[in-house]
Amino acid sequence: MTPPAPTSSQLEELSSIILPSPLQRFQPNWPGAEDLHIFIKRDDLIHPIISGNKWRKLHGIFSQLTEAPAHIVSFGGGFSNHLHALGFACKQLKIPFTAIVRGQYQHNVTPMLNDLKRWSADIVFVTRQQYAQRTCPAYLAQLQYQYPGALIIPEGGSSHAATNGIATLISELPQNFDHILVPVASGATLAGLAEFSPPTQHVCGIAVLKGEDYLENLVGNLLPAAKPNWRIDHRFHFGGYAKKNSVLTAFCAQLADEYQLAVEPVYSAKLFFALKEKIAMGEFARGSAILAIHTGGLQGARN
After folding, report:
1. How far is CA 174 from CA 22, 25, 60, 234, in A?
2. What is the pLDDT of residues 201-238, one digit of tens each?
3. How far apart, in whole angstroms, are the C-alpha atoms of residue 197 and residue 227?
4. CA separation for the pair 222, 191 (Å, rounded)
5. Torsions phi, psi of 85, nearest 5?
6. Would the pLDDT of 176 be above 50?
């Protein structure tokens, strides 16, 4: 008999799930911030490991399964929050997991990869050229043959099922906001916010990597229909994915010291740095209600 699919309640029982995540008023001592109503959706507090948008996307994916997969396969880099969250979930749900990792980290194992090893994941290292095939139908068919009955989850968990998981975030908000800001890399979180937000709620993705047009295409392909309420700001990626400098590093420390707000330099620090700069440039009308979504992934600060 085929085992039943993991249910929403099983996912929520993994440990310490906090839902709805807290909505926190944020009053930074930044020029111009005093004229705005700023809030943070603390999705980083949903779970110590499956935090932020990773929880919401995986919840959307798992909730649509009709039977438990024999195996799960997914993709990411050596510091991937997605692989980290998925590896933990598979360990708890006793589902075999294979992580296809971009780059040769065999002799430079990251803390994230050490966690996957500890959780009994099968780690397959591939070259960047091989990794580029991750969306090719022939390559995916080969993986499906290699892992019979496997659920193959796209990089970052980005899929239409994942965007449905983001709908729960919108349902938790007690009010509409004029602007929602969120970091964007694989596109599903921004797509979900754009799809399920009311048309008056403008959603701005803060690109954390170099990818003008590329990121827009990712988001557009995940939306069931064209939506006019979103855009991506490409000015704050600090040179590319996981790139940082002394300014961003100091900003991380400042948020922690002055506001007790833990961030990491790959996603969340770039989001809040963008928010500060956009306020300084007068990009928000006086009295605007602004929501910054903390998408978690704090394990990235270990690297």
Report:
1. 11, 13, 21, 29
2. 999 999 999 999 999 999 999 999 999 999 999 999 99
3. 10
4. 6
5. -65, -45
6. yes
d(CA 214, CA 191): 14
CA distance 26 to 271: 14
- The answer to whether the beta carbons of residues 166 and 53 sit under 8 Å apart is yes
**pLDDT above 80 for 118:** yes
Structure tokens at 270: 């770039």
pLDDT at 73: 98
Output the pLDDT for position 2: 42
Distances (CA, A) of 179 to 31, 75, 221: 18, 31, 22
Contact 205, 227 (CB under 8 A): no
* pLDDT one-digit tens code per residue, 57-97: 999 999 888 888 999 999 999 989 999 999 999 999 999 99
